[in-house]
Structure formats: C-alpha cells, structure tokens
Amino acid sequence: SQQGEEDPQALSIQEGENATMNCSYKTSINNLQWYRQNSGRGLVHLILIRSNEREKHSGRLRVTLDTSKKSSSLLITASRAADTASYFCATGRYSSASKIIFGSGTRLSIRP
Amino acid sequence: DGGITQSPKYLFRKEGQNVTLSCEQNLNHDAMYWYRQDPGQGLRLIYYSQIVNDFQKGDIAEGYSVSREKKESFPLTVTSAQKNPTAFYLCASSNPGQAGSGTGELFFGEGSRLTVL
C-alpha cells in the first residue's frame, strides 16, 4: 500500500508563480524525502527532511514537515518551464528505516 | 562516472516467459531497491536488499524474484506468475551508513520498460 499520498494529483501554473505540493503519510517516519521525475526517466533526489526538523530550504525549494499531522509540503518558488515534472514524496519508516515508500506523485506543468 | 545502470532499457516478453532485468551500481552502496511504476502512478516497492546475500519483500513481491550475490548487482526476475508485468521498473541504491539510520537518499537508474505481448 502507498505510504504517502500527494495532492494535488496535477497542478498547472504560470511561469514565475509559486507551486505548492502536499504529502500525507500514515506511519511514524525517520525522514521524508522529495524526488523529481521527468517523463520516462529515473527519479532525482531533491531534499530530505528529518523527523525532528520542521523546515528546510534548498535554492528555490522549501520543505516543511508536520509530524503531528503526518504531512509535508514542497514549495517551488519562481517556477520555470524546466520545473515541469512529477514530484514524489518518500518516507523511511521508523520501524524499518531502509524500506523507502513513495507516494503517488504530483504532476506539475509550468505554462510559459 | 559513478551511478546505477539498468538494462535493457526496453524489453518485450511473451506471456509465460520469465525475464531478468539487470541493475548494476558502482557507488559502493550496500542497500539496493526495485520499484514498479505504472502509467501516471507512483512507485511501488517490489524487493529491497540491505546487504549482500540478504533481501526482503516489499509491498508487491508476488511474481518477482531477486538475488544479491554481489554488492554491485541486484537483478530482478519477472516470472510467468506475475499476472500483469507490463510496467516501468526502476532500480535504486543508497549509501550504507545513511541507509541504516534512515537518512540515505536514493540514487536511481534510468529504468527498464517491460511490455508483455
């Protein structure tokens, strides 16, 4: 079963706008990661946030984690056409840290 | 360059045949993973291995088998028992020290697309 569920499933915004994607999960986790996938390609790691962290930044990316609500959000600021991709959250469970489970993803389209 | 290599990129199989997908990494990672991705869907974990000669079932292991005889290699066999094998298969690995503490990022190959004729 999927550990994480992203919403929205699809998002289309104008270039330059900010994009926000959310991820909810079910069990206790050690960390939460966000990945990007261009169509037909492998996934690329974007950012990792540990369960004792609340917010993390990397370039135009901002990730938040609320363990009490079992949710995370990924914000991409000043979006570019090249940001068009699918974005997935992934969690490492507290009970089995090496078992990394992915959500269903958000398909982001940036309109020029 | 270091990375993960999956082969073949495209594979066609007749019903009732077993096929093996290759995954090789030169990143010196202990942990390796196989995921399945269906069109427009997320990734589902098939099998994972934390160390040589050891592996665990993921969420959808039925109809698949793996081996981990070498650190660098984690081949996946899609058997005839897998009722709907047409999918995109992704292999990944993670840093050994970080994987045990649950902090390792996954490095992915470019995937293998399997189509059953």
Describe the structure concisely.
The complex is a heterodimer of chains A (112) and B (117). Chain A contains no helices and eleven strands. Chain A is mainly beta.
User: Structural class, judged by helices and strands of chain A?
Assistant: mainly beta
Helix content of chain A: under 10%
| DSSP summary, beta strand count of chain A | 11
Largest interface: A-B, 29 and 32 residues
Number of helices of chain B: 1
- Catalogue the unreliable spans of chain A: none
- Large-scale geometry of chain A: globular
Shape of chain B: globular
Find the structural class of chain B using helix and strand composition.
mainly beta
Low-confidence stretches of chain B: 96-100
Query: Got a strand count of chain B?
Result: 11
How would you spell out the order of helices and strands of chain A?
A: EEEEEEEEEEE
Oligomer: heterodimer
Biggest sheet descriptor of chain A:
6 strands, mixed
Contiguous helical run count of chain A: 0
- The sequence of SSEs of chain B as H and E is EEEEEEEEEHEE
- Tell me the Rg of chain B in angstroms: 13 Å
Radius of gyration of chain A: 13 Å
Question: What is the helix fraction of residues of chain B, given as a range?
Answer: under 10%
Distance between the termini of chain B: 35 Å
- Name the beta content range of chain A: over 45%
